[in-house]
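Allow me, if you will, to draw on your knowledge of protein folds for a short while. I am sending you one protein, given as its amino acid sequence and as whole-number tokens for its backbone shapes. Kindly check, if you would, that the fold set down in the tokens agrees with what the sequence suggests. The record follows directly beneath this note:
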Amino acid sequence: MAGAPPKPWPTGQAMQLEPLVRRVLAPNPSPYTYTGTQTYIVGLGDGCAVIDPGPDDPEHLLALDAALGGEHVCAIMCTHTHRDHSPAAKTLAARTGAPVVGCAPLVLDDSGPRADAAFDRTYEPDRVMEDGEQMTGPGWTLTAVATPGHVSNHLCFALEESGALFTGDHVMGWSTSVVIPPDGDMSAYMQSLEKLQAREQDRVYYPAHGEAVEKPRQLVRGMIGHRRQRENQIVRLLAEGPHAAADFIPKMYKGLDPKLHKAAEMSVTAHLIDLERRGLARRSDGIWRTI
């Protein structure tokens, strides 16, 4: 697993991040989830929200039960429906009686091996939140911030009382997000990054994977620059001659762990599709050319 911190990881432990926010790490580490999915609990005492309940794993659900300690759960909120984020929602809702709210349902049939988690077919929200809509509880307010790109149904949630933004997989504390067509959309992803860059009220990001981001706008500015740099690399390589998507990887990602080649190829493909839509590239039988 590239870049993972040394063990032991705080799997299953409820860690207090700030007065209204606790974090519980799920036992699902991988090259695409880092040390695992981080479930966040917002609120204390009279009622709380659980953000990204994670995989439907008995060990993780027991850890969440312990962290909640019998507290009333007002809502179970999901940023998107990959299987490392939302499947525990159904079980947790049955245990607590809390509604499942947040992103819209989304299921796509896999067209081949994925470079990230597959979609959760069990996700059935009681309420879909639109951009700007709010969920409230005792002493807390969470506002939905629509951030399509990684997937089309992705939401972030802004904790109005503290300036924290729960960023799911849109912005992570350890890696850039993969953007996998057909649902992943590079143009939408870039627009969503620019949307966050314009938000001056966000003090800290709490991603689903990786550590908290203490300088969020600085990180997002760097992510936007990184994606533009990748696009420029692709344009230069296309100018040298036709390429299949896989041909870009050894030239653009030198020294990359082979386990991550598929993810890199999918992100390159997302860039190529964006260039195609803008009239800067074309494809035929899987071979891309400049226009």
In short: The longest strand covers residues 140-146. Residues 272 and 278 are 10 Å apart (CA to CA). The mean pLDDT is 94.
